[in-house]
Amino acid sequence: MNFRLITFGFLLGINLPAFAQIESKNVPHNWFLLDPQQDSVQGMSVEKTYATLLKDQPARDVIVAVVDSGIDFDHEDLKDVIWVNAKEIPDNGIDDDKNGYIDDVHGWDFIGGKNGDVDADTYELTRQYISLNKKFEGIEDGKVPKKQKTEYEQYIKIKEKYLRLKGRNEQQYKIYSGLYNNMKQSIDTLKKVIKTDSLTAEQVTKFETNEPNRLFAKGFLMQLYRNAGDGADLNDYMKELKEGVDYFDVIVNYGYNVDFDSRKIVGDNYSDVYEKHYGNNDVKGPDPTHGTHVAGIIGANRNNNIGIKGIADHVKIMVVRAVPNGDERDKDIANAIIYAVDNGAKIINMSFGKGFSPEKVAVDKAVKYAEKKGVLLVHAAGNEGDNSDVKKNFPTRFYLNGKEAKNWVEVGASSWGKDQDFVADFSNYGKKSVSFFAPGVEIYSTTPNNTYKNESGTSMASPATAGVAALLMSYFPELTAVQVKEILIRSTRKFDHLKVVEPGGQNRVEFSELSLSGGLVNAYEAVKMAQEMSRGKMVK
Questions:
Q1: Which of 107, 109, 344, 442 is the most buried (most CB within 10 A)?
Q2: Distance of alpha carbon 279 from its chain centroid, rounded?
């Protein structure tokens, strides 16, 4: 959501939650591709890399799987870079390549079924509450069997958190719905009586009435004009406020709804965590906004002179739909990773996460499979402003046995700004758990139906990294996934003694303490390091 919604509560004199950082001013749409020295923004030096290090160099296509909400593969800036399964004949209802997935021309949808697709889903917190509540509801503390004491204590904590968050979001939904209805009614009332299609501050100010409903409408809109200025566009504010209503509507009616079961749509045997070959081939899904935006960052066509330029110029995007509007499920993520690996992906981007992982054993197995097959996994660190060393964000490179995957990078989000504003205030961080940071604030990329939009989140920082990784693998095909990971970490741009505001807090900390590498992804230095390695000058 954009800045206007953040300020809406201020304009009406009430407290409403913030959703994102303030929009950039006078910052180029492609700032994340630019160079600090040449362009005065903290980008990744991608354009500089192409112009100086990779000009006229040979390259091969690299398949990057985007495990996400779906992708608009017909988008003008993506259609030429979408992966096509050459072994599959489109729409013939036959599994031509015998991989278990019928007509998987551009990928697969693990949250779809014969009768449709999952759009919104519950949160993992809700699912944990449902499971434990069936076991412990109505049982008093003193009557819990000793062997179930630990699980019961976990239930109490989960129940408290579930009820607290459910209540808080229901209240926000009520506030936004009330504001939206009052604003719509006020605008409609005055438009009708003033006989105009477009209200202005002057019209509202001059309007005189003693009728209570009309008087309320005038007062409501005058308050907005006083705070926002006489030139405020009421239609824009209605649109942004409706986004807030829709946002909380999904949270309340799906995220925390104990009566909603999305697996009725999928039709799988959900209790079988290792079941495969369910779903359908509808890789766009009901709302491919998030996945389309992610895909554009990685590889939007750099040569068609329209829209934007992605990071990698020799890439094919494989679409793997497994992320609903809500929390993804471990079974689907495990299958998504395995599908991507089996069908030739060299990099898998994962811009999603959650606080619980009840079937982590299945995800671990899939991650180990990707590690064995030499596939790089790139994961968004999360947007809670938390220290991931303390508060876990799943999936994670750390296995249940304490070991860690060597083919995994975890990415926090940075901004174009300098000094204390360099780190996104929403980004998770962690000296042990987060590998490095990459641009993730106001990233302009592709959205469905040939449109483009700014979005913020570690969801954007992850594909920024995946794009640089794809660039390395396409120009230096001899590099392994582990070598690419090491190059990305070692080549990061460092900022000596840079103090930033700790995400989610007020304290000033050194940027170097927020991640393992203490740096920012740097395409230019990464390519230079790859060139040295390809010449046999391995950096120790």
A1: 107
A2: 22
Task: With cut-offs at 50, 70 and 90, classify the pLDDT of residue 492.
Answer: very high
d(CA 479, CA 60): 13
Burial (CB < 10 A; 0-12, 13-18, 19+), residue 274, is exposed
Of these residues, 75, 106, 290, 293, which one is catalytic?
290
State the pLDDT at residue 24. Answer: 54
The one catalytic residue in 61, 97, 249, 282 is: 249
d(C-alpha 423, C-alpha 420), whole Å: 7
Task: Please state the rounded mean pLDDT for residues 372-382.
Answer: 98
DSSP state of 93: S
CB atoms within 10 A of CB 402: 6
Mean pLDDT of the 368-374 span: 98
Helix (H, G, I), strand (E, B) or coil at 130: helix
Residues forming beta bridges with residue 169, ordered by sequence position: none
Choose, from 45, 433, 459, 491, the residue flagged as catalytic. Answer: 459
Structure tokens at 134: 């069936």
Is 459 noted as a catalytic residue in this protein? yes
Beta bridge partner(s), residue 68:
321
Q: Is 43 exposed, middle or buried (0-12, 13-18, 19+ CB in 10 A)?
A: buried
Fold classification of 3-121+262-532 is Rossmann fold (3.40.50)
Amino acid at 299: G
Phi, psi (deg, nearest 5) at residue 222? -65, -35
Question: What is the predicted pLDDT for the residue at 6?
Answer: 39
Cα 410 to Cα 428: distance, rounded to the nearest angstrom:
10
Distance in angstroms (rounded) separating the CA atoms of residues 313 and 299:
6
**Burial of 443 per CB tally in 10 Å (0-12, 13-18, 19+):** buried
Beta bridge partners of 320: 67, 108
pLDDT of 232: 76
| DSSP classification of residue 504 | T
Segments making up each domain of the chain, as ranges: 3-121+262-532, 124-255
What does the pLDDT average to over 473-498?
A: 96
Q: Is 109 a residue of the active site?
A: no
E strand or H helix that includes residue 508? strand 508-510
Let me know if 421 is a catalytic residue: no
**Burial per residue of 370-384, b for 16 or more beta-carbon CB atoms within 10 angstroms, e otherwise:** bbeeebbbbbbbbbb
Beta strands in 60-156 (DSSP E): 62-68, 107-109, 112-113, 116-117
